[in-house]
Amino acid sequence: MKNCFVAQSGGPTAAINSSLAGVISAVQKTEHFDRIYGLLNGITGLFENRFIDLSEHFATERSLEQLKTTPAMFLGSCRFQLPSVEEDSAVYEKIFAFFKEHDVAAFFYIGGNDSMDTAMKLSAYAKRIGSQVKIIGVPKTIDNDLVHIDHTPGFGSAAKYVAASMLEMAYDTSIYKLNSVTIVEVMGRDAGWLTAATALARTEFSDAPHLIYLPEVPFDTEQFLEDVREKVIQYNNVLVAVSEGIRDAQGNYISATEATVDQFGHSQLSGAGKTLERLVARELGIKVRSVEINILQRCGGHFASRTDLEEAFRLGANAVAYAQEGISGMMSTLTRENGAEGYQVSYGYADLNEIANRVKSVPLSFINEAHNDVTDEAIKYLKPLIQGEYETRYQNGLPCYTPIYCSSNISR
């Protein structure tokens, strides 16, 4: 019998552990694999020989159910860029020597774009040396920017969180009879999917957010000020949603501080909301505040979308089935079906070579002509993804989650 390994990487979400639960559950139900092990802190756990036996750790359905609703990554994460074979072949030799030593037949990597890059490189090397280890990517990212998949696990729950937060801020800001502007900065460096999702907050009570700005189109500060002036006259208390990655026509970020760059070359942004707050205060003289939702939008496990968690679980389980069929170098995917019965998806897989290092932007048809709102087409796309809730188990008044295994804050 052969074993399989799984790891998680990149930024956390409320649904990535549901994908992990799907992988574990599928392995436990098949006779194709003997054991399933989890690498701690992504692919770096392999280099440090740090892994655990997940077959023993999640031996019951109850333990898997709790894992499904636990935010962040049970196995921990990493931000590690795998070099090319030409840059460092020794790294690949070490990885596949590890696979051979532990009788690994399949490796599942759960993550976003950079994780799919790692999976793609491992798959290419396996093919190059004639290794039979199957490499399958399992998608996740709150940014919803992976290509060849209708939407990514983690996005629906984050969208639900930002929309609910916007709705509650609409209630908060409506109680005073004075002009005010609240600018809400939402994650999204290159793609504005999450910021677009704030439009789901609109109800019969409130039209907030009254303005939405995405990084897919140029941001004009003069037009922004004019937009705000008009909305203050119309609504008195104005809420504005902006992506952290909004930039001007020259491609410069609208940020209070100069953006730094991570090891993948991605800009690390903060300050767009604060920049616009100062601009409104200086130019319009209106009471204004900025709110940066920051990591709250990706760790709201108590408010996760049931649709999101169930799809994440299925994508993880399907990855195991594909490996059993001898498939490798692919990412587990889902496609939206336009059926008469409403929202439906079908499952499949796509080539990692066509996914890694590409970005799926919000289509222009989802953005209005004035570039300060989203269209009905966007709402139709977004609304099904936030539907449903799981019944969260509470202890001492707080959500009861599975402890993160690699955390130094727990004892074992």
Automatic annotation (TrEMBL):
<dbReference type="InterPro" id="IPR022953">
    <property type="entry name" value="ATP_PFK"/>
</dbReference>
<protein>
    <recommendedName>
        <fullName>Pyrophosphate--fructose 6-phosphate 1-phosphotransferase</fullName>
        <ecNumber>2.7.1.90</ecNumber>
    </recommendedName>
</protein>
<comment type="subunit">
    <text>Homodimer.</text>
</comment>
<comment type="pathway">
    <text>Carbohydrate degradation; glycolysis; D-glyceraldehyde 3-phosphate and glycerone phosphate from D-glucose: step 3/4.</text>
</comment>
<comment type="similarity">
    <text>Belongs to the phosphofructokinase type A (PFKA) family. PPi-dependent PFK group II subfamily. Clade 'B2' sub-subfamily.</text>
</comment>
<keyword id="KW-0460">Magnesium</keyword>
<keyword id="KW-0808">Transferase</keyword>
<feature type="binding site">
    <location>
        <begin position="141"/>
        <end position="143"/>
    </location>
    <ligand>
        <name>substrate</name>
    </ligand>
</feature>
<feature type="binding site">
    <location>
        <position position="113"/>
    </location>
    <ligand>
        <name>Mg(2+)</name>
    </ligand>
</feature>
<dbReference type="InterPro" id="IPR035966">
    <property type="entry name" value="PKF_sf"/>
</dbReference>
<feature type="binding site">
    <location>
        <begin position="187"/>
        <end position="189"/>
    </location>
    <ligand>
        <name>substrate</name>
    </ligand>
</feature>
<feature type="site" description="Important for catalytic activity and substrate specificity; stabilizes the transition state when the phosphoryl donor is PPi; prevents ATP from binding by mimicking the alpha-phosphate group of ATP">
    <location>
        <position position="114"/>
    </location>
</feature>
<dbReference type="GO" id="GO:0006002">
    <property type="term" value="P:fructose 6-phosphate metabolic process"/>
</dbReference>
<dbReference type="GO" id="GO:0047334">
    <property type="term" value="F:diphosphate-fructose-6-phosphate 1-phosphotransferase activity"/>
</dbReference>
<keyword id="KW-0963">Cytoplasm</keyword>
<dbReference type="GO" id="GO:0005737">
    <property type="term" value="C:cytoplasm"/>
</dbReference>
<comment type="function">
    <text>Catalyzes the phosphorylation of D-fructose 6-phosphate, the first committing step of glycolysis. Uses inorganic phosphate (PPi) as phosphoryl donor instead of ATP like common ATP-dependent phosphofructokinases (ATP-PFKs), which renders the reaction reversible, and can thus function both in glycolysis and gluconeogenesis. Consistently, PPi-PFK can replace the enzymes of both the forward (ATP-PFK) and reverse (fructose-bisphosphatase (FBPase)) reactions.</text>
</comment>
<dbReference type="Pfam" id="PF00365">
    <property type="entry name" value="PFK"/>
</dbReference>
<feature type="active site" description="Proton acceptor">
    <location>
        <position position="143"/>
    </location>
</feature>
<dbReference type="GO" id="GO:0046872">
    <property type="term" value="F:metal ion binding"/>
</dbReference>
<keyword id="KW-0324">Glycolysis</keyword>
<keyword id="KW-0418">Kinase</keyword>
<dbReference type="InterPro" id="IPR011404">
    <property type="entry name" value="PPi-PFK"/>
</dbReference>
<feature type="binding site">
    <location>
        <position position="11"/>
    </location>
    <ligand>
        <name>diphosphate</name>
    </ligand>
</feature>
<dbReference type="GO" id="GO:0003872">
    <property type="term" value="F:6-phosphofructokinase activity"/>
</dbReference>
<feature type="domain" description="Phosphofructokinase">
    <location>
        <begin position="5"/>
        <end position="288"/>
    </location>
</feature>
<feature type="binding site">
    <location>
        <position position="244"/>
    </location>
    <ligand>
        <name>substrate</name>
    </ligand>
</feature>
<keyword id="KW-0479">Metal-binding</keyword>
<dbReference type="InterPro" id="IPR050929">
    <property type="entry name" value="PFKA"/>
</dbReference>
<dbReference type="InterPro" id="IPR000023">
    <property type="entry name" value="Phosphofructokinase_dom"/>
</dbReference>
<feature type="site" description="Important for catalytic activity; stabilizes the transition state when the phosphoryl donor is PPi">
    <location>
        <position position="140"/>
    </location>
</feature>
